[in-house]
Write a structure and sequence with these properties.
The protein is of the alpha/beta class and about 375 residues long. It is about 25% helix and about 25% strand. It has 2 domains: about 190 residues, Quinone Oxidoreductase, Chain A, domain 1 (Alpha-Beta Complex), CATH 3.90.180.10; about 140 residues, Rossmann fold, CATH 3.40.50. Helix 4 packs across helix 5. The longest helix is centred in the middle third of the chain and has 13 residues. Zinc ion (ZN) binds next to loops.
């Protein structure tokens, strides 16, 4: 079938809106009509060419919602008409990782996913007879996409896709990082570096966890009002101080914060986030994604004196098991999604979503088909 899609033909170039050919879903695969997709910083990261797993030409997008159109052989957990959120972290419920009870990092389709391929090693997208790669197992920048069955969370038919698509990445990652990775407890102090959708979702999660002080940090002060509305108690712009930001946070808190979260993808900020964690027990969670060749560093003494460095993918959430309930929470107003959607636009304007992000003017742009 034909599908309208925004294709990244080369790194650093605007996406091009073209009509792709989409092959039918094969064994264990599902054809999904995407209705809405958010644009996450990770899409921009991969488009920039900094992603070691970046392959081109590719259909990016991994924060979508849609409906099932057709199922391939052997698919039993979804049926045509079901409403779904594609998952870049699959959940097969059978692999070593899924059955460990310790992680959400399923490996069922991860190896081929990282190469932009379906599990059988081929692509379902083509343009003028040439294969086009998939992205993060989702490729939500195509109106019709093919996804592995294990990479689909079935959700409530009544859910508002313009909002719940954000549970496909940004909001789930931030909230999950607080509850699953850091396990923030009532009264804990929290510092959040970077106030995009991820950082704001961390703040929302921290308030759910009844954190005490929530310190929000961004070099763009236009993010502060929304951060306060989600529960930030203090907002700081690192540019306002000559001292390193970790020193500012330590001076504000005495010994540092119980939990810090890096939601930018900047290795220098990752260091600052670790170093503002409390002596003896503070932990720092890396959420931001850093480019090829970048490395983190700190004095080992920072760890010797009791700080812990952690990371999280999709907030530790098991998508097929946990996302349906998060959608229900959003429908009940227990997870707020609407404030994240600062812009909406049709697919033809998708490049402006990237511009708004780079200019610091959006939290999330949501594309509708
Ligand atoms: P975003 O661009 O919307 O937000 C980033 C924020 O960081 C902006 O508000 C920006 O002003 C701020 N910032 C930039 N440099 C800063 C600095 N030096 N100090 C303080 N603030 C600074 O991005 P987003 O969509 O919220 O994503 C954030 C990061 O999280 C990205 O790296 C993205 O790739 C990553 N991410 C990771 C996961 C995961 O599962 N680990 C999931 C989603 C996104
Ligand atoms: N491909 C990159 C890493 C990109 C990355 O870390 N992705 C996050 C999700 S970002 C969503 O916006 C993630 O979940 N990683 C775990 C995984 O299995 O992909 C690289 O460095 O190669
Ligand atoms: Zn994302």
């Amino acid at each position: 079938m034909k599908s309208r899609a925004a294709v990244a033909f080369a790194p650093g170039k605007p996406l091009e809106i073209v009509e792709l050919d989409v092959a039918p879903p094969q064994k264990g695969e599902v054809l999904v009509k995407i209705t809405h997709t958010g644009v996450c910083h990770t899409d921009a990261f991969t488009l920039s060419g900094a992603d070691p797993e970046g392959v081109f030409p590719v259909v990016l997008g991994h924060e979508g919602a849609g409906t099932v159109v057709e199922i391939g052989e052997g698919v039993t957990s979804v049926a045509p008409g079901d409403h779904v959120i594609p998952l870049y972290t699959a959940e097969c419920r059978e692999c070593l990782f899924c059955t460990s009870g310790k992680t959400n990092l399923c490996v069922a389709v991860r190896a081929t996913q990282g190469k932009g391929l379906m599990p059988d090693g081929t692509t379902r997208f083509s343009y003028k007879g040439q294969p086009i790669f998939h992205y993060m197992g989702c490729s939500t920048f195509s109106e019709y996409t093919v996804v592995a069955e294990v990479s689909l969370a079935k959700i409530d038919h009544e859910a508002n896709h313009e909002h719940v698509c954000l549970l496909g990445c940004g909001v789930t990652t931030g909230i999950g990082a607080v509850h699953n990775t850091a396990r923030v407890q009532p009264g804990d102090t929290v510092a959040v570096f970077g106030l995009g959708a991820i950082g704001l979702a961390v703040i929302q999660g921290a308030r759910q966890a009844k954190a005490g002080r929530i310190i929000a940090i961004d070099t763009n002060p236009s993010k502060f009002d929304l951060a306060r509305s989600f529960g930030a108690t203090d907002c700081i712009n690192p540019k306002d101080d000559d001292k390193p930001i970790q020193q500012v946070v330590i001076e504000m808190t005495g010994w540092g914060v119980d939990h810090s979260f890096e939601c930018i993808g900047n290795v220098n900020v990752m260091r600052a986030a670790l170093e503002c964690a409390h002596r003896g027990w503070g932990q720092s969670v890396i959420i931001g994604v850093a480019g090829a060749g970048q490395e983190i560093s700190t004095r080992p003494f920072q760890l010797v004196t009791g700080r812990t460095w952690k990371g999280t993918a999709f907030g530790g959430v098991k998508g097929r098991s946990q996302l349906p309930d998060m959608v229900e929470d959003a429908m009940k107003g227990e997870i707020q999604l609407a404030p994240f959607v600062t812009h909406t636009m049709g697919l033809e304007d998708i490049n402006s979503a990237f511009d708004l992000m780079h200019d610091g003017k959006s939290i999330r742009s949501v594309i509708h088909y």
